[in-house]
Amino acid sequence: MLEHIIERAQLEGFSRFVLSIGYLGHMIEAHFGNGERLGVQIDYLREESPLGTAGALSLLEPLPDAPFIVTNGDVITDIRYGELIDFHVRYAAAATMAVRVHEWQHPFGVVQTQGVEIIGFEEKPIARSHINAGVYALEPGALSVLDAGEHCDMPTLFERLQSKKQYTVAYPMHEPWLDVGRPVDLEQANGQGLAADDPQKRE
């Protein structure tokens, strides 16, 4: 999965990567090394205890000097990282979160009531909402709300920025996406992968 992420980003011109590692991180470091095999530069953040996606960024030294991408390691996607950065810069955001539309169909017909009176019916309605896709673009200054070595997840980072009146935006993505932290998506990744939803084949 990490190799897929690196190769996808490399195709768009990204050449430096920082991997946050913890338990069994030595195996990841042994596999990737300094990135020379893949033609990129790879550095590591070593977590003594789990810090969360945002908390791990507090270990960055030196800080990036330009907007940068953060992605969860268990997300497989064909998102265009360059387009995400462009969107982030265009909206002058402190932090940008890639989001996807998730649809869920109610398994039953829904009865709408007012008191005891039935006022309508909706047969197996479909609910739509935006979900966090686990890919982000951040300004270096966004890391100022983190405390070194403190656990922090990305939604908390966004909430802290919002509390300081920093501009945070959602980037609507449409590319294939799998969160293999879920068993059903891990099964799909091991079987069909993303080829079943290849954007090159869409009209």
Please, could you describe this protein's structure?
The chain is an alpha/beta fold. 26% of the residues lie in helices and 31% in strands. It contains six helices and ten strands, in the order H-E-H-E-H-E-E-H-E-E-E-E-H-E-E-H. The strands form four sheets. A four-stranded mixed β-sheet has the order 3-8-5-9. The protein has a two-stranded parallel ribbon with strand order 1-2. A two-stranded antiparallel ribbon has the order 4-10. Strand 6 and strand 7 form a beta hairpin. The chain is elongated and about 70 Å long. The C terminus is likely disordered.
What oligomeric state is this? single chain
What does the largest sheet look like? 4 strands, mixed
Given as residue ranges, the uncertain stretches (5+ residues, pLDDT < 50) are 192-203
Report the sheet-strand fraction. 25-35%
Give me the secondary-structure category: alpha/beta
Q: Shape, please?
A: elongated
In DSSP terms (H or I, runs of 4 or more residues), the helix count works out at 6
List keywords for this structure.
6 helices, four-stranded mixed sheet, two-stranded parallel sheet, disordered C terminus, alpha/beta, 203 residues
Write a concise synopsis of the structure shown:
The protein has 203 residues and is α/β, with parallel strands linked by helices. The chain has helices at residues 2-11, 25-32, 52-57, 81-90, 154-163, 183-191, and strands at 16-21, 41-46, 68-71, 75-77, 95-105, 110-114, 117-122, 126-138, 168-172, 177-179.
